[in-house]
Write a structure and sequence with these properties.
This protein is an alpha+beta fold and 393 residues long. The protein folds into 4 domains: 87 residues, conserved putative lor/sdh protein from methanococcus maripaludis s2 fold (Beta Barrel); 108 residues, Elongation Factor Tu (Ef-tu), domain 3 (Beta Barrel), CATH 2.40.30; 53 residues, RNA polymerase II/Efflux pump adaptor protein, barrel-sandwich hybrid domain (OB fold (Dihydrolipoamide Acetyltransferase, E2P)), CATH 2.40.50.100; 76 residues, Helix Hairpins, CATH 1.10.287. 29% of the residues lie in helices and 35% in strands. It has 4 helices and 20 strands. α2 packs antiparallel against α3. The longest helix is centred in the first third of the chain and has 34 residues.
Length: 393
């Protein structure tokens, strides 16, 4: 048994010696790591001029819309347009059978001619009676009757003229014309269909698409904030182009032609708390169609000394407040609590907590804490830390 212990003793001594050497090597590496401040990537915060914009979603709507309806009843004889084509104001679209309206018009003209002939006879008689009553050749009553008959004949002529005009208007209404210029949709009737005056269903719809409206909604709270910032001087009006609006289409592409903000509604929607804004855009090629989903970019105002912080350098504390780490005096890490106003691209617009000249840490945040000494380098030149598995001896 003693012989076995003597044989194992040298091996145990070797293991202990190896452990001591490794422990010393680890302490030396840890000491060297503690003596070298960790490298962090920083960016220099600079104040810059910034034009603030708001992106609002909405839909397009036609500039003018006219539903075509018949104003007289009858049978549709023919359709005189191509569905989906451009039509001009006054262009005939449908022809209603005019036969009965032509007959009514002719009858009214005949009644007018009869009334005018009767008026000539009555006028001559009244003129003679007016001369005869002066020499007492007829009674005053006969003269009064002739003058009354003259006025009645004149009224008959006026009524006949009105009847002729009414018949002419109804005859013209058998030719259904386009009220406006624009693009016409599909037809709801075909030749042979019976239509009635002012019916509920439209024969077709004409829409003017150039220019075209874009209706978007904005939160009333955002509108109040904008007015408050402008009144306090924090923002300045965007100048002559403050009503300019840009448009982003459904696929994310930019619409090439700028529009103008036309008006904002005076009523807040009680259900959504939003206000409708309307912009008008030129649409010469007809790329924009009514009902399309779009996003309008409105210029709010200019800020001369804007402070922007990259989002990767901003975190949240347990209370949800935005915080960031900066390199302060003696290259020590400082914690800053921020007040942010909005997102601008991939950055936060900061109102409090940062100033021009601060060195904001954006790389290496996972290996530092407030109060630690660090070695700041430009974020563009920062080298990622070596993997933990590659330990030094």
């Amino acid at each position: 048994m003693a012989i076995k212990i003597k044989r194992l003793l040298p091996a145990g001594v070797a293991l202990v010696f190896s452990a001591v050497m490794l422990s010393g090597c680890g302490r030396q590496a840890a000491s060297e790591a503690a003596a070298t401040p960790p490298e962090v990537g920083v960016i220099d915060i600079q104040a810059q001029a910034l034009t603030l914009t708001t992106e609002l979603s909405g839909r397009t709507s036609a500039y003018l819309v006219s539903e075509v309806r018949p104003q007289v009843g009858g049978i549709i004889q023919k359709r005189q347009f191509v569905e989906g084509a451009e039509v001009k104001a006054g262009q005939p679209l449908y022809q209603i059978d005019p036969a009965s309206y032509q007959a009514t018009y002719d009858s009214a003209r005949a009644s007018l001619a009869k009334a005018e002939a009767s008026l000539v006879s009555t006028r001559n008689k009244a003129s003679r009676y007016e001369e005869l009553v002066a020499i007492k050749a007829v009674s005053q009553q006969d003269n009064d009757d002739s003058q009354a008959a003259l006025k009645q004949a004149q009224a008959d002529v006026a009524a006949a003229k009105a009847a002729v005009e009414t018949a002419r208007i109804n005859l013209d209404y058998t030719r259904v014309a386009s009220p406006i210029s624009g693009r016409i949709g599909r037809s709801s009737v075909t030749p042979g269909a019976l239509v009635t005056a002012s019916q509920a269903s439209a024969l077709s719809t004409v829409q003017q698409l150039d220019p075209i409206y874009v209706d978007v909604t904005q939160s009333s709270a955002e509108l109040l904030r904008l007015k408050r910032d402008l009144a306090s001087g924090q923002l300045k009006p965007a100048g002559a182009n403050q009503a300019a609006v840009k448009l982003l289409l459904e696929d994310g592409s930019a619409y090439p032609l700028p529009g103008k903000l036309q008006f904002s509604d005076v009523t807040v929607d009680q259900n959504t708390g939003t206000i409708m804004l309307r912009a008008v855009f030129p649409n010469p090629k007809g790329d924009l169609l009514p009902g399309m989903y779009v996003r309008a970019v409105l210029e709010e105002g200019d800020e001369a000394q804007a402070i922007l912080a990259p989002q990767q350098g901003v975190t949240r504390d347990t209370k949800g407040n935005p915080t960031t780490l900066v390199v302060g005096a003696d290259n020590k890490v400082e914690l800053r609590v921020l007040k942010t106003r909005r997102v601008v691209g991939d950055k936060w617009l900061v109102s409090e907590g940062l100033k021009a000249g601060d060195k904001l840490i954006v790389d290496g945040l996972q290996k530092i804490a407030p109060g630690m000494a660090v070695h700041p380098v430009s974020a563009d030149k920062a080298v990622p830390a070596a993997p933990a598995a590659a330990a030094q001896h």
